[in-house]
Amino acid sequence: MTDFSSGAVLDDDLDFSAAKSRGKARESAGARAAAWGGRGLNVAIGVSAAVVVTGIALWGVQLSGGMVQTGMRNLASWGLYITSFMFLVGLSAGGLIISSVPKALGIRGFGGISKVAVMSSIACTVAAIGMVVVDLGQPARLWELFAYSNLGSPLMWDILVLGTYLVLSCFYLWAQVRAEAGRMSHTALRVISVVALVCAVLVHSVTAWIFGLQQGREMWHTALLAPWFVSSALVCGTALVMVVAIALRKVGYLQLDQAYMVKLAKLLGAFVMVDLYFFGCDLLTEAFPGGSGAEVVAMLVSGPLAPWFWTEIAGCAACAVICFTPALRTNALLVVGSLLAILGIFCKRVQLLVGGFQIANLDMPGPLTPMQHAAWDSGLSGIYGSMVYWPTPLEFGVTLGVVALGFLIFFLGLKFLPLRPRGEEPPSE
C-alpha cells in the first residue's frame, strides 16, 4: 500500500517480482513459439512430406500388383482403408462441431482454438477422402462414379456431402479470419456457423447410413448407428482438439488459460459417457434373451474381436475418470486420456467393419472364391468363422502415407495461415 503522509511507496504496492515472472513467462513462450514456427515446424513439414512420398510409392506398388496384395478378399471387401475413413470423418466432424457450436448458439466458447480446430477438421477431411481413393482398385475410373451415379445410394450421398463439407470447412475458416479482422459481421459468421454445424452432423450421419441401411449385415443394421457415429465423432474430435491445443500451448504457439482446458476436459468426459451409453443400449438390445444378436455380442465380448472391444471400454472409461476428476486434470494426463479416447473410437470402427463381415448372412457349400480362408467343404459359415481380417504391411504403409498427408496440410496451415488468435477470449464459468 502507499503511505500518503510521507509520499513513500511501499514494496507491496508494486509487485515487481510478479511482473517480472509474467514477463519471463511471455518471453519464454515467445522463444518457444519462434523455435516452433521456424526450424521445428519446418522439420515437421519435411518429415510429413517424406512419409507422404513413401505412401504414394507404396500405393503405386498396390496399383501395379492389384488389391490381392492387401488383406481384403471377396468375403471382406473393406478393410483398414475404410476403417480409417470412418475414423477420420469422425475426427473431422468433431473438430468442426467444437468450433461452430459456440458461435452458432451465441455463447462464449473456445475462441483461442477455434481456427486451429477448423484447420484440423480440414486436414482430417482431406485424409478421409484420400482413404477412399487408395481403396479404389482402379482410381482412374473415378469419373464413372459421377457419370453413372445413383442418387438413391448412401455411398453417393456420402461423396456429395463430404465434398460439400470440405468446401464449407475452408469457407468457414476464411470467414473466421475475416470476422477477426473486422471485415465480416458477427451475424454473418453466426449464420455460417449454423450451416457448418448442420453439415458436420450430416456428414457423419450419412457415413453411418452407408452401414446402417444394409439389412443383410446384422451388426450394421440399426437405427442407432447414426447418433452413435455423431457421439463418437464428438469424442474423438474433442480429444484431438485437446491434444492439439495442449501441444501448441506447450510450444508457445497458443496462449490459452488453463480454464479452457478444464472446460474442454469436462466436455470430453460428457461426450464419452454419452457414447458409452449408446454402446450399452446397442449391446443390451442385441444380447437380451431371445434377441437375434447374441452371436454379435459373443464375438465382441469373448470372440475374435474381444481385444478391440475391451480396449475401447477401458480406454474410454479411463478418459472419463481423468476428465471428471479435478486432481487428474493435468495437461499430461489430459493428453493421455484424450489419446485413449481416440484409440477407443478407432477400436469401435474396427469392431463395426470387421464384425459386420465376420458374421455370415447366407450359407452354401462349394468354393466361392480362390482366396477363401478355410476349406471349401466347411460352407460359407465355416469360412466366415475362420476369417478375421488383418491388414498387410502394404496397407499399413499406404495408410500411414495418407495420414501423413493430413499432418502435412495441418502443419502448412500453422505455418502460412493466421490461425493464432489476435486476442484472448476470457473463459466463461
Protein described:
By secondary structure, this protein is mainly α. The protein has a single domain, classed as Formate dehydrogenase/DMSO reductase fold. Helix content is 70%, strand content 1%. The chain contains 13 helices and two strands. The protein has helices spanning 16-65, 80-105, 114-135, 143-147, 154-180, 186-212, 225-250, 258-287, 294-301, 306-324, 331-358, 379-385, 393-416, and strands at 2-3, 8-9. A two-stranded antiparallel sheet has the order 1-2. Helix 3 (114-135) packs antiparallel against helix 5 (154-180) and helix 3 (114-135) runs antiparallel to helix 13. The protein is globular. The chain starts with a strand and ends in a 13-residue tail after the last helix. The model is unreliable at 1-22 and 424-429 (pLDDT under 50).
How are the elements arranged and paired?
Blueprint (H helix, E strand, L loop, with lengths): L1 E2 L4 E2 L6 H50 L14 H26 L8 H22 L7 H5 L6 H27 L5 H27 L12 H26 L7 H30 L6 H8 L4 H19 L6 H28 L20 H7 L7 H24 L13
Antiparallel strand pairs: 1-2
Helix pairs in contact: 1-13, 2-3, 2-6, 2-7, 2-11, 3-5, 3-7, 3-13, 5-6, 6-7, 7-8, 7-11, 8-10, 8-11, 10-11
